[in-house]
Amino acid sequence: PPAMPNASANVKNVSVKNLDLRATQTFTNGGRQNIELSGVNIGLDQLKNGGSGKLTLAAAMKMDREQGGANDVLDTSGSGTIDFTLGPDLLPQKIQGKVTHQVVKGEGDFGTFAGERSELNLDLTPTEIKDFSINFFQKDKALGAVHVNGPLDLQKLEGHLTLTVQSIDRQVLNLVGAGRGWDFEN
Fold it and tell me: Going by C-beta distance under 8 Å and a sequence separation of 6 or more, which residues neighbour residue 87?
């Protein structure tokens, strides 16, 4: 993003604590789907020009789908912390952090996803993406990864980045496609 002349920020602490959201969808065939976000906690500490701060995130999600006599359940949780430093113009000088998401429980069509975990890793400066990666696991077994790194100029919005995809397992693709009824087989 271009520099923001005369931009100023000074936020000591903003938080959302224990927010719960629920959405219900009824299908024309009589089926129903509930999605519930619970325990949503978002904290932003020390957002200011030329200073360091921290963003913390946590939430749980439950999806319950009843359709055609079948009941599919997916329970997930996620959390993470991102540390950052902003320049006087509010452009990022450093972003480092990790956000983890895991499937706690899966039943029905989601039964094979129990124990899957993804980790988002961030390590960025105004001149380089050292690490922007997502790693996928089934318990402790690696299922694949996507990595981006390389030189970056935030002032010019230019970069020469390398994208590496490391053997994405069908379980990862099926997690993405399950809500749409997709199965990537072998």
Answer: 49, 50, 93, 126
